[in-house]
């Protein structure tokens, strides 16, 4: 026993020394970290302010370069474009994020296209333009807790007449077309309801409440990626192509079976 414990004492003392040095190291590192926390925080704040200032400057530059030529430097319109000073930030956000603005040419149709701006440029332009306009604000849309059944009922009642039950859009009167909703994001769906872009009517809260708007937006997202538990969706073109495929394959199979059964047997 004595012979076994004697060598263990130096080992235990060494462990205590190592642990002590490690503790001292942790304390010293913590002290240095605390000493440098305030300067880093101030530096980060300054950087954030510089970024905000840079974004505002970038947004103003884009507005004056691409938008003011039609809508004026103050968004009150000009010879080439209408007054949008009362359209609201929701209209600016919708037009910019869907690529409807700026138009590639004065005669181009107002339709969804790929935006010439990246995400940061879009945000900078929308933020700056929002300081020039009054009206509907960018809505806060929550689709996570929305009732899809209620959203589907509200969609069929208010939207399906123009956008079709599957959200694929379609032709309207006087050569107009309701857009396809397969790329519409939730915020864009609600913005369109509130601002009424193009020939689309406005749906105020008295007609469609905020809760119903969220439900419709959630249902539109469901239309983009439906579960299709019944089988192959066949492009969601409706019962006509499904029936056509059934007839083609069904009759084809019957003809093949008939031919095989009616083939004469060769006698031995």
Topology:
Blueprint: H1 2-5, H2 8-71, H3 89-97, H4 119-130, H5 148-158, H6 160-163, E1 170-171, E2 177-178, H7 186-195, H8 210-224, H9 239-262
Antiparallel strand pairs: 1-2
Question: Top keywords for this entry?
Answer:
elongated, 268 residues, 9 helices, disordered N terminus, 57% helix, mainly alpha, two-stranded antiparallel sheet, 2 strands
How would you characterize this protein structure?
The protein is mainly alpha-helical. It is built from nine helices and two strands. It has helices at residues 2-5, 8-71, 89-97, 119-130, 148-158, 160-163, 186-195, 210-224, 239-262; strands at residues 170-171, 177-178. Helix 3 (89-97) runs antiparallel to helix 4 (119-130) and helix 5 packs across helix 8. The model is unreliable at 1-9 and 26-53 (pLDDT under 50).
Largest sheet: spatial strand order: 1-2
What is the count of helical runs?
9
Radius of gyration: 33 Å
Poorly predicted ranges: 1-9, 26-53
Order of helices and strands: HHHHHHEEHHH
Calculate the terminal CA-CA distance, rounded to whole Å.
Answer: 102 Å
The fraction of residues assigned to DSSP E strands is under 5%
Query: What about the largest sheet?
Result: 2 strands, antiparallel
**Backbone structural class:** mainly alpha
Q: Mean pLDDT, rounded to whole units?
A: 80
Strand count: 2
Range of helix content: 55-70%
Overall geometry comes to elongated
């Amino acid at each position: 026993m004595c012979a076994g414990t004697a060598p263990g004492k130096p080992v235990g003392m060494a462990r205590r020394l190592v642990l002590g040095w490690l503790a001292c190291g942790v304390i010293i590192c913590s002290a240095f970290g605390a000493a440098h926390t305030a300067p880093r925080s101030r530096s980060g704040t300054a950087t954030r302010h510089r970024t905000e200032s840079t974004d505002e400057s970038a947004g103003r530059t884009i507005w004056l370069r691409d938008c003011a030529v039609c809508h004026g430097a103050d968004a009150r319109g000009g010879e080439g474009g209408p007054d949008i000073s009362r359209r609201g930030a929701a209209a600016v956000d919708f037009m910019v994020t869907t690529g409807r603005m700026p138009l590639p040419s004065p005669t181009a149709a107002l339709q969804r296209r790929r935006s010439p701006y990246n995400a940061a440029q879009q945000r900078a332009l929308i933020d700056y333009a929002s300081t020039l306009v009054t009206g509907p604000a960018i809505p806060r849309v929550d689709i996570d807790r929305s009732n899809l059944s209620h959203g589907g009922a509200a969609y069929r009642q208010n939207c399906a007449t123009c956008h079709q039950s599957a959200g694929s859009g379609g032709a309207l009167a006087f050569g107009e077309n309701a857009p396809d909703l397969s790329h519409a994001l939730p915020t864009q769906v609600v913005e369109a309801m509130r601002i009424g872009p193009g020939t689309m009517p406005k749906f105020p809260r008295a007609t469609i409440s905020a809760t119903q708007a969220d439900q419709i937006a959630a249902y539109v997202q469901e239309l983009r990626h439906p579960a299709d538990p019944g089988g192959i969706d066949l492009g969601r073109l409706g019962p006509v192509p499904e029936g056509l495929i059934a007839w083609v394959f069904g009759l084809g199979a019957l003809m093949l079976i008939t031919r095989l059964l009616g083939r004469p047997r060769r006698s031995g």
